[in-house]
């Protein structure tokens, strides 16, 4: 599973793969990438707190992705803080 945390990384990965299938995009403002996102598949993708336009949101959901809204209170928690060893 590939995780994406920046717009620059998003652009590189999408250019290389040509699909968003199976990717996890976390906390990235994708509002300026609507056209390109709506032109590719997103099956099995996960968008965690990513900003999407309404039409892009509809597209990724129809393509089989899941979308979680931003959770501001949890923004600063990491997996290490949540699940210490």
Gist of the model:
The chain has helices spanning about 5-15, 35, 55-60, 80; strands at about 5, 25, 45-50, 65-70. The protein is an alpha/beta fold.
Helical fraction? 25-40%
Helix run count: 4
In spatial order, strands of the major sheet run 1-2-3-4
The fraction of residues in strands falls at 5-15%
SSE arrangement:
Layout: E1 3-4, H1 7-17, E2 24-26, H2 34-37, E3 46-48, H3 54-62, E4 66-68, H4 79-82
Parallel strand pairs: 1-2, 2-3, 3-4
What would you say this structure looks like, in words?
With 85 residues, the protein is α/β, with parallel strands linked by helices. The protein contains four helices and four strands. The protein has helices at residues 7-17, 34-37, 54-62, 79-82, and strands spanning 3-4, 24-26, 46-48, 66-68. The chain has a four-stranded parallel sheet with strand order 1-2-3-4. Strand 1, helix 1 (7-17) and strand 2 (24-26) form a beta-alpha-beta unit.
């Amino acid at each position: 599973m590939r995780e994406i945390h920046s717009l620059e990384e998003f652009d590189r990965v999408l250019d290389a793969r040509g699909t968003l299938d199976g990717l996890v995009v976390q906390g990235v403002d994708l509002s300026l990438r609507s056209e390109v996102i709506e032109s590719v598949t997103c099956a099995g993708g996960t968008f965690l707190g990513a900003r999407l336009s309404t039409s892009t949101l509809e597209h990724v959901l129809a393509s089989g992705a899941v979308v979680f809204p931003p959770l501001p209170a949890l923004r600063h928690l990491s997996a290490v803080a949540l699940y210490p060893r």
